[in-house]
Structures are given as structure tokens and as C-alpha cells.
Write a structure and sequence with these properties.
The structure holds three protein chains of three kinds. Chain A is mainly alpha-helical. Chain A is built from eleven helices and eight strands. In chain A, a hairpin with a 4-residue loop joins strand 6 (247-248) and strand 7. The mean pLDDT of chain A is 86. Chain B has 15 helices and no strands. In chain B, 32% of the residues are buried. Classes of the chains: A mainly alpha, B mainly alpha, C alpha/beta. Chains in contact: A-B, A-C, B-C.
Chain lengths: 394, 367, 247
């Protein structure tokens, strides 16, 4: 018997024809070419900027911006610095992207599952929706929705109304919001406590099931915990009851919570467009589970609902989640098209800043930096998730 | 010994399972919930259908008469706006009397694209045909040769520009994509790193930022005093953008190829580039044709973004046609539907073709 | 004579309107009997046994399993599926669950067995098929033969009265066929009713009480293994046997 040993150390051969030497030569050549190109571009850029009198550097971020922004999530004046303006832009982008992602997931999943409905009309409608919204450019869809919202809706002086509390007009959507008081903070805390309590409850229910074999539905109690927790918190905080209602005035609606038509156009357009892609992703995921899995579940006597939850969905989700995340990223990147509609997202604000200061390189670098950061962190998360959830093979 | 077994001849099923009525019973009224859904949807169509059809067709105004259109507002679509403005929408700011030129160029390009899709044209001389038609297209649009007057590129617009941009971008992006995909799989760390950075950078940012970069920064990169044509700037931006996405698709195809192919090429004594050219790339590229078609469809839709950097392709031309004209501006919705229909038709046709190609390729690889 | 546990009475099945896949099937299977069904591909043998646990529906005739007639009645189907275990050609183990979880899934969620008891039974069955040490592995980490043995154990966990095997060794590498057949042989000796579609004639000779030959949707011949292999009655049977025993 020959026992296993460790291999001898590697020795590289450095003759002229060896692959190692060739490899190094090619790389040196490539690096030289790239370095040369970069030097050429940088030299030209500096020359051009000198000739045109353009300053460079990111110090402009500390100077006052000098322009107003239509929608702000936190307070901003035109005398504030550029970096604050960019911050508003990022906040606006995140606002429409996150809300869009939530709505798209819901709508896209319903459409994707609808492709498997036993009803042929539902199947046909879902298929028709996907084909229609997939084949029209997203910019066109955003512009069309903006046009609809600003032309078809009535003037702000005489808005559509729902119960005298919600108003819809060319000026946007206004709705009542609670007057923020400490009691509302308590309500949020209460809801969070409810979430914590429901986790304990779910764990206990699972232990019960494993011990006795009797399953208990958990979603109703979970909902109950959250609602009761929020209600208790609200009571403890002094039961604040103030609401701010919008008022319909001569020329406009004032007060209450407001959503601008730009925001609505971007949100609706992005959601409807991206959900057609998400529907396809969900459909492909459900189809990827082999029929044999369903047959085996049937043969074991599992009823349809349990089949879905225990056998089909866990396998389908593994196939769905990576492309789904890709669609989320696409939605976020597509939100940059808001610049064509006038919604002040980060690209729009960067564009204004660029036109005012002439610092093209810096402004574009900021846009790209923001989006790159989002994409790369999402990719990293995706890779981590894939490694964890992968079906273990040999 | 006599055969004790008698053959039972096949019979027709006792209950009809094929045909319209059984299908309807199973697919529309299979269960109580199913039936209720069907009835609810039918009710909705019956209520909404006539309104939509009236607006779209029956009460619509087809003549380019502004007053008739205004009178019918709200109850009938004004397709007259299309009749009135279609030339500006489709051809952009191109000089009115020379519009036969972009028309001819568009027909030539479309003809080339459609011809490239069908089998009889898959011959080596197709490449030469492409060069010839592209040259012809430039000559027709730009002029300055063959006695045609010069038309600067910022006047090019509309549908011919959309098709040109998409086609040229694909033609230039494809070789770049192949090189980058090969580079990403290279064993040389410097080349691999550069390719990875390029792909991840481009894929992580929106197209609009790449177009801004091309539009604002490209002139800065060139020696002072050189004027970069706006079309060239935009083309460079779109090309670099698509090349990154296509590179990932090609890389997928390269990875899907069994390792045995490369090993066989090595044992036959082929060099790296010979193996790639003759063995690896033909097979890998055939594998990814459907994905590449999707890429082209996405690119075709993405050309609409060049409006934002002031090149007036189809979407932008429509804005041009109507924004300045107070008479026809209220009928923008009809114009939107018109160009949406154009995009939809072309993209839908391309996706159907892509499915057909996929079936063809699968048939040729299945035994 | 005790009532047969499976009764086919003039059973007919069609795919669509024209493809008559099962023609006038009359078959009785006694309790504890071991049946092997063989025949060329497309003869309807898999379809036949899949009718027994209602994975396929029949359009005409009767099928009675352990006293329950199979029809569209959901309760009847559930009752039958609890009595009948099935092993598939492609194993169909759930890849996202461990071997142990694969086995305890149905007892816990269909029968309401508490987890500890379900796991004990599962380990018992795993020992029976001699694979207890792989309990915490995932299916795709095992070889084909090991996966099929796990599939057999999974079906046994519900203590079925009837076991159906749909070409259980056809997807296995040759050296793994024996381990699965050994398990099936041991199972047969234990007295469970077995209906098995297979090409393994050695297994049929050793274990079967009756061998059934099907062709083009109907039962051509059925006999004891000895009679079937040595004195087939029909020309078709002889033809088939010469093809499959020849090499």
C-alpha cells in the first residue's frame, strides 16, 4: 500500500515560449494600453476644463444650491448646500423605489400565479397584461401616465373627492393624515412589541404541533397581536385623536398628506411595467418545480394547500428570488427616468446641479456612485442568500 | 397452440372531452368560484367594452380637422392628429421635402433585418450585404454624396433613427461583448479584472447616467477643439451599455459549453484563438441566440431614452410634433397610443421570432 | 375466498377522445399477493397502476381499492391514498428537506402524528432499508440507489396496505439495481400487497405470485411466473420475452 503524500513544490519555467512568460507579457501590454488610454483621456479632460474655465473638485457640494425642489422628505431651502439637495434626491429615489418594489411584488406575484388559474379568462388576461406592458418602452409609459394624470384629472380648484376627505386633481392626491403626537410613537412601539410577541407565539405553536400533531393556524393570531399591540400603545400614549384633513380651496387643495402627480406617475408607471417582468419570473419559478414533486406529494396524501406550502413554494422560491432581485434593481434604475417627468429624484437634481455649476464629471460620478452602491450591496446580499438557501448537492 | 388472446379494438371515449363545450365547461365553469369569476369578468367586458370601442373606433374622428376633434373630445378619439402629424412623428425634424430619404433608408434597414432572420439568407455573403446596406443608409440620411444635400445628424429623427441606433449599437456591441466575455474567463488577472470592472460598473448604473456620461463627458475626453457629433456620442453610450449586458449573456453561453469541447480542441493542437473561433464561439453563440434576441428587444426599447439627451427619435419626435402646436396639443394621448402601437408591434414580432428561433435551435440539437 | 384488495372491473381510460389507453381491464389482486406487470413501452402499465392511487382518472368501469370505490369523491381519494404507498421511477424525493424530514412530512401533516413518534418510525423504516446513517443528509447528496431506498422508506412510513412500484430501478446505474431489488424482495417476504411494474425478470421469477403482460392497453396474459416464462400462451408474449430475455 502506498500512503498519500503531499506534492512537491512547483517550479515555474521561464523560457521564451512558456505560457507563464507569455501571460505576463500580454498583461503588461494590456495594462500599458489601458494606462495610456486613461492618461490620454485625463490629459484631454484637464486641458478642456482649463480652456473652458471649469472648476473641478467636490467642494461645490458645500456651496448654496440656489434652486427649489418640488418635493422634499425633510426640510430644505434653496439656500441650503448642494449636498443637502443631493440628499433630498436620494431620499426621493428611495421613496419611489421602495414603494414601487412592494407594489410590484404584490401585483407581479398575483399575475404570475394567475397564469395557472383554472379559469381560462384569468389566464388570458394575465398573459395579455404581460405582453402589453413588456413591449412598450418604460419611458413612454411614464410619460403617458403623467399626461393622463395632468390632463384627464380635474383642475385643483374642483377636485374629485371621496367622502370629502380624499381629493384627487391635477395637483395631486390629498388625504387625511394623523396629527403626529407622542401617542402615535407609542402605537408604533406597540405594533413592534406585537411582532415580537407573535414570534414567541409562532414558536410555541410549532412546538405544540411537533408534540401532539395538531397544527394551529398562525396568521390570524399574528395579525391580532400586532393590532392589539398598536392599540395598547396608542391608548398608553394618551389616545391622540387629531387628524389633519385636507381642505378644498378656490384654486387648490391644501393641508393633509399630499402626493404629487409626478410621484404618482412614476410610481404607477414603474409598478405596472416591472410587474409584467416579475409575473414572468414567478411563472418560471412555479414551472421549474418538476411535476414529480407534486405527484409524490399527492401520493403521500398531502392536501393541495399543504402541498403548495411545504413542497412547491420552498423549491419555487429558490428559483424566483435571484431574478426577482434583478427586477428590483431594474425598477430602482428605471426610477432615474423621473428626470423626464420632473420628479426630483437624484438624477434630476444632479442634472440641475450639473447645468448650474458645469461640474459634469463630479455630478455624473455622484449619480453613478449612488446607483453602484445600491446594485453592489444588493448583489452581495443576493450571493449570501443563494449560498445559504441552495439545495445541497454532492 | 392456438393464441388464446383476443385483441380488443380501440373505441372512442364515451364522454366527449374535446371541442368547445367541454373546454368551456372545464376552463370557464369548472368550479363555483371559477364560474363566478367568469361571469364577473364577462360583466365587466360588457360594461366597459362598448365605451372603449366607441372611443377607439366608432365615435372616433379620423379626419385631420381640429374643430371636429375638439367637438368629439371625451367621447371619441382624435385619430386625425395622427393623420396630421404622422410625418413629424415618424421622421422627426428631417427637412420635409427630403423625407423620401429617411423613408428609403428605413425600408432598406428593415428589409435587411427581416432578411437576416430567414434561413435562405444565412450565407457568408450576408456580412457584405450588411456593410452595403449600412453604408447606403448613412449615405441616404446624411447626404453629401450621390448629389444628395447634406443633412446634419441633429436633424435626423423619428422611427428611422430608432432603428438605426438599435441596429448600429448591436453591430458594434457584439464584437466588444464577445471580447469582454472571453476576457472575463481569461486566466490573466489583469485582463480579467478590467473586464469585470467594466461589466459590473455598467450594469450597476442606469442607462440615463451612461448617456449623460457620453453626452457631457465625451467632449471633455477629446483634445480641445474637436467637435463630437451628437449621434456619435449617443451611439458610443448605447453601445458601451449594451456590450456589458451582452457580454454577460455570451459568458453564460461559454459556461454552458461542456468542458470536453475545449479539451478536444486542445488535443487536436489548435491554438487558443483558433479553438475559440472554430469550436467554442460557434456553439456558445448558438446557445444564447434567444437571450441575445431579448437583449436586442430591450435595446430597441432603450433607444427611447436618447430623447433625454436631445436626439429626437420616435418618442422625442412625438413631443416635438405636439408640444409646440397649441391646436393639436390636447390630443397627445392619441399620439402616445399611436407610437405605443408601433413599439408594441415591432417588439412583439421580435419576441415571437425569438421563440421561433429557440424552437428551431432545439430541434437541431435534439436527436 | 376473501374479498380481493384491488378490483378492476371493465376499466377503460382515454387520453382525449381518441387515444384509448386502457381497454376493458379486468383484474383482481388478493391481499398479500405480489404482482409484476411487464410489457413494451406505451402498453399502459404505468397508467394502470397510477389509477390505483388516482394519480390518473379512469372514464369507464370500476376500480375498488380496499373496499372503497375510486371516483371524483375527494374523501374516497384521501382514504385510498392513506392505504397505498407509491415508489416512482424518478424517486421524487423533496430536495429541500433532509432524508428524515422527507419521511416525517406526511405522517406529521397528513396523519397528525407527533414529531417524536414520526421520527422514531422514520428511523425504524430507514434501518429496514439499511440507510439509517444518512438520515440527516439531503437527497441530492446520496447516490441513486440510496435515494430510491429512501423513497421506499418514505412510502412505508404511512404503514400502507398496498405498495405500488413504477419501474423503480429503470433510472439507476446497473450496480445499484441490486441493492434496491434486495429491499423490495425483503419487503415482499413480509406479506405486504405489492404491484410492481418492472423489466427485472429475475425479480419477477423470485418474488412474484403472478406475472401480467400488457400490450396496447389490455392484459394479454397472466400466469404464475413458472408458467409465464416457460410456457407463454400468446404469440405476443413469446415475442416480448424473446426480446427481453434474449441478451
Amino acid at each position: 500500500m502506498i500512503e498519500a503524500r503531499t506534492p512537491p513544490p512547483r517550479r515555474r519555467e521561464w523560457t521564451l515560449r512558456s505560457r507563464a512568460l507569455r501571460g505576463v507579457l500580454y498583461q503588461v501590454l494590456a495594462i500599458a494600453l489601458i494606462a495610456g488610454a486613461v492618461w490620454f483621456l485625463a490629459h484631454n479632460t484637464l486641458e478642456n476644463m482649463r480652456v473652458r474655465g471649469i472648476q473641478s473638485g467636490f467642494d461645490f457640494l458645500l456651496q448654496p444650491a440656489g434652486f427649489d425642489i418640488g418635493e422634499t422628505m425633510f426640510p430644505y431651502e434653496s439656500s441650503d448646500a448642494y449636498w443637502r439637495a443631493f440628499g433630498i434626491g436620494v431620499a426621493n429615489t428611495l421613496r419611489v423605489a421602495l414603494l414601487g418594489i412592494v407594489l410590484t411584488t404584490i401585483l407581479g406575484t398575483l399575475l404570475g400565479v394567475g397564469r395557472f388559474s383554472p379559469n381560462a379568462l384569468v389566464r388570458g388576461l394575465c398573459y395579455g397584461y404581460v405582453e402589453m406592458f413588456r413591449n412598450i418602452p418604460v419611458l413612454l409609459q411614464l410619460m403617458a401616465w403623467y399626461l393622463l394624470l395632468t390632463e384627464v384629472l380635474p383642475d385643483p380648484g374642483s377636485p374629485l373627492t371621496l367622502g370629502g376627505a380624499v381629493f384627487l386633481s391635477k395637483g395631486g392626491l390629498s388625504f387625511p393624515v394623523p396629527e403626529w403626537a407622542p401617542g402615535h410613537g407609542w402605537a408604533v412601539l406597540g405594533a413592534l412589541a406585537g411582532v415580537g410577541a407573535s414570534r414567541f407565539y409562532a414558536a410555541a405553536a410549532r412546538r405544540r404541533f411537533e408534540a401532539t400533531g395538531i397544527p394551529r393556524s398562525t396568521w390570524l393570531p399574528v395579525l391580532g397581536f400586532i393590532v392589539v399591540g398598536a392599540a395598547l400603545g396608542w391608548l398608553l400614549g394618551g389616545a391622540p385623536e387629531g387628524w389633519r384633513f385636507p381642505e378644498s380651496g378656490e384654486a387648490a387643495v391644501t393641508g393633509g398628506g399630499e402626493i404629487s402627480p409626478e410621484f404618482m406617475a412614476v410610481l404607477i408607471g414603474l409598478t405596472l411595467y416591472t410587474s409584467s417582468f416579475v409575473a414572468e419570473v414567478v411563472r418560471a419559478g412555479i414551472q421549474s418545480v418538476p411535476r414529480g414533486q407534486v405527484e409524490a406529494a399527492n401520493a403521500l396524501g398531502l392536501p393541495r394547500g399543504r402541498q403548495m406550502r411545504l413542497v412547491v413554494l420552498p423549491q419555487a422560491l429558490r428559483v424566483i428570488i435571484p431574478p426577482m432581485t434583478n427586477q428590483y434593481l431594474n425598477l430602482t434604475k428605471n426610477s432615474s427616468l423621473a428626470v423626464a417627468i420632473g420628479y426630483p429624484d437624484v438624477v434630476s437634481i444632479s442634472n440641475t446641479a450639473l447645468n448650474q455649476t458645469g461640474r459634469a464629471v463630479e455630478c455624473i460620478a455622484i449619480i453613478m456612485g449612488v446607483y453602484l452602491f445600491t446594485s453592489l450591496s444588493t448583489s452581495a446580499f443576493m450571493n449570501w442568500y443563494n449560498r445559504r438557501a441552495a439545495i445541497k448537492e454532492r | 397452440m392456438a393464441d388464446s388472446f383476443k385483441v380488443i379494438p380501440p373505441r372512442i371515449a364515451p364522454v366527449n372531452t374535446e371541442g368547445l363545450i367541454p373546454w368551456a365547461r372545464a376552463n370557464l365553469f369548472g368550479s363555483p368560484l371559477n364560474a363566478v369569476t367568469t361571469l364577473a369578468l364577462l360583466a365587466f367586458f360588457v360594461w366597459f367594452g362598448p365605451i372603449a370601442l366607441n372611443w377607439l373606433f366608432f365615435k372616433a374622428v379620423w379626419v385631420p380637422n381640429f374643430d371636429t376633434c375638439q367637438a368629439a373630445r371625451g367621447s371619441g378619439a382624435c385619430w386625425g392628429v395622427v393623420a396630421e402629424k404622422y410625418r413629424v412623428i415618424i421622421f422627426g425634424r428631417y427637412p420635409l421635402d427630403q423625407q423620401w430619404r429617411p423613408e428609403a433608408a428605413m425600408v432598406a434597414l428593415l428589409g435587411l433585418l427581416v432578411a437576416s432572420c430567414v434561413r435562405p439568407f444565412w450565407k457568408p455573403w450576408l456580412a457584405l450585404l450588411w456593410l452595403a446596406v449600412l453604408a447606403l443608409t448613412f449615405a441616404l440620411m446624411g447626404g453629401g454624396v450621390m448629389g444628395l444635400s447634406r443633412v446634419p445628424t441633429d436633424r435626423w429623427g423619428g422611427l428611422p433613427l430608432t432603428i438605426m441606433l438599435a441596429t448600429l449599437a448591436v453591430v458594434f456591441a457584439f464584437p466588444i461583448a464577445v471580447l469582454v466575455a472571453l476576457g472575463r474567463r481569461s486566466e490573466l488577472p489583469a485582463i480579467r479584472t478590467f473586464c469585470v470592472i467594466y461589466v459590473e460598473l455598467i450594469r450597476g448604473v442606469p442607462l440615463i447616467s451612461v448617456l449623460f456620461m457620453a453626452s457631457f463627458m465625451f467632449p471633455l475626453f477629446m483634445p480641445p477643439g474637436t467637435q463630437i457629433d451628437v449621434l456619435l456620442r449617443v451611439l458610443v453610450g448605447i453601445t458601451l451599455f449594451s456590450a456589458a449586458y451582452m457580454a454577460e449573456i455570451v459568458r453564460g453561453g461559454l459556461q454552458a459549453l461542456p468542458k470536453g469541447q475545449l479539451e478536444a480542441a486542445d488535443t487536436l493542437g489548435l491554438s487558443y484563438w483558433q479553438a475559440q473561433r472554430k469550436i467554442v464561439l460557434p456553439q456558445a453563440l448558438a446557445l444564447v441566440v434567444p437571450s441575445m434576441m431579448n437583449s436586442f428587444i430591450a435595446l430597441f426599447k432603450d433607444t427611447s431614452l436618447v430623447t433625454i439627451v436631445s436626439l429626437y427619435e420616435l418618442t422625442g419626435a412625438m413631443g416635438l410634433a405636439l408640444n409646440g402646436d397649441a391646436d393639436w396639443r390636447p390630443f397627445k394621448i392619441e399620439a402616445y397610443l399611436f407610437i405605443a402601437a408601433i413599439y408594441f408591434t415591432i417588439c412583439f414580432a421580435m419576441s415571437r421570432y425569438s421563440l421561433w428561433i429557440e424552437k428551431q435551435l432545439r430541434r437541431s440539437t435534439n436527436r | 375466498m376473501a374479498e380481493p384488495i384491488i378490483q378492476f372491473k371493465k376499466l377503460n381510460k382515454w387520453y382525449g377522445n381518441a387515444f384509448h389507453v386502457l381497454r376493458d381491464i379486468d383484474l383482481d389482486v388478493a391481499k398479500g399477493e405480489r404482482i409484476v406487470i411487464c410489457g413494451p413501452s406505451g402498453s399502459g402499465k404505468s397508467t394502470l397502476i397510477r389509477c390505483i392511487n388516482r394519480l390518473e382518472e379512469h372514464q369507464q368501469g370500476q376500480l375498488i381499492v380496499d373496499g372503497t370505490e375510486l371516483s371524483d369523491d375527494v374523501k374516497a381519494i384521501e382514504k385510498v391514498r392513506r392505504e397505498v404507498g407509491m415508489v416512482f421511477q424518478q424517486f421524487n424525493l423533496f430536495p429541500h428537506l433532509t432524508v428524515l424530514e422527507n419521511l416525517t412530512l406526511a405522517p406529521m401533516w397528513v396523519n397528525g402524528t407527533p414529531k417524536k413518534e414520526a421520527e422514531e418510525r422514520a428511523l425504524q423504516q430507514l434501518s429496514r432499508v439499511r440507510i439509517a446513517e444518512q438520515a440527516l443528509k439531503y437527497p441530492l447528496q446520496l447516490s441513486g440507489g440510496q435515494q430510491q431506498r429512501v423513497a421506499i422508506a418514505r412510502a412505508l412510513c404511512l404503514t400502507p396496505k398496498i405498495m405500488l412500484f413504477d419501474e423503480p430501478t429503470s433510472a439507476l446505474d446497473p450496480e445499484m439495481i441490486k441493492e434496491v431489488l434486495d429491499v423490495m424482495t425483503e419487503l415482499a417476504k413480509g406479506g405486504i400487497t405489492m404491484v410492481c411494474v418492472t423489466h427485472e425478470m429475475g425479480f419477477a421469477k423470485a418474488v412474484a405470485d403472478r406475472v401480467i403482460f400488457m400490450d396496447q392497453g389490455q392484459i394479454v396474459e397472466e400466469n404464475t411466473p413458472h408458467e409465464f416464462f416457460n410456457a407463454p400462451k400468446s404469440e405476443r408474449t413469446k415475442d416480448f420475452l424473446s426480446k427481453i430475455l434474449g441478451h
